[in-house]
Design goal:
The protein has 399 residues and is of the alpha+beta class. It has helices at residues 12-15, 80-83, 88-104, 181-189, 191-198, 230-244, 259-270, 309-322, 385-393, and strands at residues 2-3, 7-10, 24-28, 35-38, 45-50, 56-59, 62-68, 71-77, 136-144, 147-155, 165-171, 201-205, 247-257, 278-281, 299-304, 329-335, 338-343, 352-357. A hairpin with a 2-residue loop joins strand 6 (56-59) and strand 7 (62-68). It is globular and about 45 Å long. The chain starts with a strand and ends in a 6-residue tail after the last helix.
Length: 399
């Protein structure tokens, strides 16, 4: 709801605000062309609490008030000597806050813009609903960044054109993309077969260069100085697939190994509204990346204890901070040499899980169906990566 042309009232979920949180500064992401919230206190606004409801106010690009449960958190001018120099502009902002409070405290039912509860499972059908496509794997190309890029799309055998399905992005490791090796990674990851059994689409895009890689950040593994925008490319793939077939837009997730895991982390870091959840396998968040403090995003990290475990743990720790998790944990999987620990108390009710394979190396851990021996990884009976990955990813939805 626009008020006086200076602000917009929207739900606190869409603004990425929680009761008692600091004011959020919204900045634009060049990757997605949309806005994400950054947790920075407004220099001219101070908080106090009143009222009841469930919405927020965004003032000139800044979230300055929110209602959650029985609290309204409102931010008002705190230093007239410095902040009232804006005169008319600041008075206009205060009128916005007043209008917000009046609207929030009215008894006209649910406030405009209120989102469904977090346990809402309603699908958001994409533009491609109604389009038919034969089951199996299809190859597509699209122009992006002056290059012809490609992706495979697996259509499950039970696809019905009017029933939205989840979409999983399968991001290959270094070298296992492009002609020949692209198909090999599909066999190793075994995610196409998983998607066919469980009823979700799998898009498997290709990186660029020789060897084929993703621009996941400076730590791994693009050629120095590359300017390929793979975050934006994945956004373009998602858009294309949603136009082609019937996708549930709230259930778009990504899994990746090694270099592909770096890209999954980079997407969660720089464009947190793109994916409902990520599952990086033996990969990390590149250290130099500056993450946006937008919506909390669920993370499932799978690591081998003999494969740069300290770097994996640093990435998990960083997302524990981004997601506002506390120290509460549960053991969510334990079998053989595999232990999964989940932080269960985080902002927006997300979770962060770290599974560690004791003695494991740089592998996509799985069973005999995934041809692991061909890349130097042993077949295991205590973990099947694609099963744990989908068990986690299938639970999450975008707001």
């Amino acid at each position: 709801v626009s008020i006086f042309g200076c602000c917009t009232i929207r739900s606190s979920k869409s603004a990425g605000i929680r009761s008692g949180a600091e004011a959020k500064k919204v900045r634009k992401s060049s990757t997605m062309g949309s806005q994400y919230s950054q947790g920075v206190r407004h220099p001219c606004l101070a908080p106090f609490s009143i009222g009841a409801g469930d919405l927020s106010i965004v003032l000139r690009g800044r979230a300055v008030a929110s209602l959650t449960g029985d609290r309204i958190l409102v931010y008002i001018v705190r230093d007239s000597s410095r902040c009232l120099k804006g005169g008319k502009a600041v008075r206009k902002q205060l009128l916005c806050i007043l209008a917000f409070v009046l609207l929030a405290c009215s008894d006209n039912g649910s406030p405009p813009g209120t989102l469904p509860p977090t346990n809402d499972t309603t699908a958001r059908p994409s533009a491609g609903c109604g389009n038919t496509m034969e089951p199996g794997v299809h190859v597509f190309t699209l122009d992006h960044g002056g290059m012809e890029r490609s992706y495979d799309l697996m259509i499950p055998s039970d696809y019905v054109s009017t029933e939205p399905m989840p979409l999983l992005l399968n991001l290959h490791p270094l070298t296992l993309g492009g002609p020949g090796l692209h198909a090999f990674w599909a066999w190793v990851s075994n995610l196409n077969a998983k998607g066919d059994r469980e009823g979700f689409f799998v898009a498997q895009p290709d990186g660029t260069g020789a060897p084929v890689s993703w621009n996941g950040g400076e730590d791994c593994c693009s050629p120095p100085g590359t300017d390929v925008d793979d975050v934006d490319f994945i956004a373009a793939v998602i858009d294309a697939v949603q136009d082609q077939i019937c996708v549930d837009e709230r259930r778009v997730v990504a899994a990746g190994m090694s270099n592909g895991a770096y890209l999954a982390y980079r997407i969660a870091c720089e464009a947190p509204d793109m994916l409902a959840a990520i599952a990086p396998v033996v990969g990390s968040l590149s250290a130099e990346l500056d993450c946006l403090d937008g919506r909390a995003i669920p993370v499932f990290q799978l690591s081998g204890s003999e494969d740069s475990l300290d770097r994996r743990e640093q990435s998990v720790t960083r997302f524990l901070e981004i997601n506002g998790c506390n120290d509460t944990t549960e053991s969510t999987y334990r079998k053989g040499d595999v232990t999964c620990t989940t932080h269960t108390v985080c902002e927006e009710d997300v979770e962060v899980t770290h599974c560690i394979v004791d003695g494991g190396g740089h592998c996509f851990f799985g069973d005999s169906d995934s041809l692991l021996s061909l890349i130097g990884c042993e077949v295991r009976d205590d973990i099947v990566s694609q099963d744990l990955i989908w068990e986690f990813l299938s639970r999450w939805r975008l707001p």
